[in-house]
Design a protein that fits this description.
By secondary structure, the protein is mainly beta. The chain contains no helices and six strands. It has a six-stranded antiparallel sheet with strand order 1-2-6-5-4-3, with no helix packed on it.
C-alpha cells in the first residue's frame, strides 16, 4: 500500500508516516524535495523535505523526518503548516 498519516499509541500528535495495510490502497500523494542523488536511498545525515497534500486539512502539511522504525514501517515526523 501507499503512504498515509497515522497516529501511534492512541495519541493524536505527533503524526507518523505509515504504510497502508492493503496493497490496493494508494495512500496520500507525497512530494520529496531538497534531495538530488543517483542512489535509491537518503542517508540519515541528509535533509529531506516531504510534503503531503491531505484532503481533510485546509492547508498542506510540511513534514520533517525524525526516526524510522523498520519493525513497524513507520517514520516519525514533526508537522507544520505551510
Amino acid at each position: 500500500g501507499g503512504l498515509t498519516l497515522t497516529t501511534r499509541n492512541g495519541n493524536q500528535c505527533p503524526l507518523f508516516i505509515g504504510q497502508e495495510r492493503s496493497e490496493v490502497e494508494r495512500g496520500i500523494p507525497v512530494k520529496f524535495s531538497n534531495w538530488r542523488s543517483r542512489v535509491g536511498f537518503v542517508p540519515e545525515s541528509e535533509n529531506l523535505n516531504i510534503k503531503m497534500d491531505i484532503e481533510y486539512v485546509l492547508r498542506s502539511v510540511n513534514l520533517l523526518v525524525g526516526h524510522y522504525s523498520p519493525q513497524s514501517l513507520e517514520i516519525g515526523v514533526h508537522s507544520g503548516w505551510s
